[in-house]
Amino acid sequence: LESPSTGYARECENFGDLAMTDESKALQSIFFGKQACEKNHYGKPARMPQNMAVLGAGLMGAGVATVSLDKFPKVILKDVSDTALSRGEDMVRDVFQKKVKRKKMS
Question: Does the predicted model carry a pTM greater than 0.70?
């Protein structure tokens, strides 16, 4: 068995070697790029938007509209076909009906 100080020295050396690999540099680049994208360079808006429109009432569009209804008083769902729009509206309605049934909203 090695002493703790020998183990710490070996760990330090190996960590230094790992930090210099191409994989480590790529992961660092992804991390710092993600951090830069999350920063708001435009400041706080003068007034918060009151309306939102979602183009496409498929599974993803209906999902975006559903979660957006918590943040925006008016959400407009649009689609090229009336049948697709109806299905999207039904998906949104079903989510809220389930919440009411489970007593998560009234």
Answer: no
